[in-house]
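Internal tracking record. Fields below are filled automatically when a chain is submitted to the structure queue. Please do not edit lines marked as system-generated. If the sequence contains nonstandard residues, flag them in the REMARKS field before resubmitting.
Queue: standard
Priority: normal
Entity type: single polypeptide chain
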Amino acid sequence: MRIAIPAAATTLAVGVIGAFLTTSANASPAPLPAPGNTASVSAPSQAQLTARIDGALKTDPQTAGSASTSMSANSTNPNVIGGTDTSISTAPWMAQLWYYDDKGTTDTSDDVGFFCGGTVVSPTKILTAAHCVKGANWKTYGAVVTGTDQLPTTNSDGTTNLHGGTVSGVWRQWNHSSFNATTVANDIAVLTLASPVTAKPLKLTTSNDTASYTAGTTATVYGWGRTSSTSQDISQTLQSATLPINSNTTCGSYFGSDFIAGDMVCAGHPATGSDTGTVTPCNGDSGGPLVVGGKIVGVVSWGVQDCVSSGAYSVFTKVSTYVGATEPRIDDTNLSADSKADLFVRRSSDGTGYEYDSKGTSFAARQSLGKWSGLNVILQADLNRDDYQDFVVRRSSDGAILWGHYVPSSNTFTWTQIFSNWKTRTRIAAPGDVTGDAIPDLLSVDSGGVLWIYPGKGNGTFSARIEVGTGWNQYNSFSAHGDFTGDGKADLIVRKSSNSYMYLYKGTGKAGSGAFSSRIHVRTWSGYNAFDAVGDITGDGKADFVTRTPGGTLYLYPGTGKATSDIFGSRITIGTGWQQYGIFG
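SYSTEM-GENERATED OUTPUT FOLLOWS
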């Protein structure tokens, strides 16, 4: 997530943080001009974005979906034949990814342009294939179109017609660190847009989803790719097609070692050798979704030359395998916009808040965010999933819960009261998505020890609270932000007051009493008096943990993704002097 105060309408400031604080004990926090990191990212104009689309449209369509991948002789460039026209109302989350780099020359022979599909998975996040991302500079040369089932066309006056779509720039890109361009293993990526889109997101499946991958399950693939094996033209209108999921045995029997069970899933009836009777994604569909039950279970990855070779199947990245690595790119506590979770702390002596940007296994020098007086809870969050860092705070005087969030349209940071009289709540947490609807929620424990979920609506408001259970006041630490087990679900880590046992409560993606599995004893920590969970600090796709000793030494415990006593790796010493901070975000 980012928190920014743009210097002008055409720029976005990376990590430019206004100091938002209480002007009095009873006032809402108000923005003050105290920037942090002032490194800026230029936001491309609409003209620049459409020029990129126009350039990509004019390049050879055979380059579609072939940004960086080289595959074995049994297959072709990663990439709907036999599909039907589909409206954007049926698939509102579909995205077009356009890339064009003229190499700074007037010679068109060296131009690079290609097209891929993608899926809106949050207002600023596009899920796609790593082979569409790695080796490309999407911030400088990319454009993303959402909200239309038509590809752009050129009007008679030379302008670009988006057919009702919205074009956005790309701010950040991430692809799986272990993506292999030769084997096409780990073929998954996320693009972060420069501004939120209104397209309805589609949810990722979960790591424990096996039903969606059962042989014979009906799935639907979407894309604008080639509709014929004899033509390089991609489709003007969004296509969809239904495909049966195949077993690993079936896929392996055709592709041999090229098919990596666990990393990949294949779908479809065997191709016939021609367009007739074949239903399959093809070049240009790369990065698009394979959907089962309203969730993404696959990302179009690769297939055979011209897509219809007799007996062939289509191969997709198996999303359930990569949920743990992908979710931290969708929901994090990232103040500096670098895909690593950062740390907010407040000094006890004077209420000054500080930002510590992650450097992986250490933190950069702190940046002052001004005074944060009159508050006794400060949490990092992104309640509206706009990729700007939010804060959820509790006012000491009356227990009011306030949501601080950036409003791009007015270029302001605004505070909104979302709950009143939470004075007696013993624990409050912003864990991310607890209920499995891809929208961040809140948790609180009342004076009687009852844990409540407040299901988020994605706009700073919440549905009626849902009771999880009782007995939660036995814990004197309640840390919740991130997925500690790699299953794509938000978890809890708590410490019992009587014996300093640390317990993991694995999230299930459900609401109510079944929101968390039975607790697992993962550590016994009596030598620490402060704890914080802010997400993936190291940038490896696993949630991490921070602890502090009474003497002020701060330690980072890298997450392992294991739900056992090995949940964390060996601790890393961050430094001393951290006893000065009374609140960790």
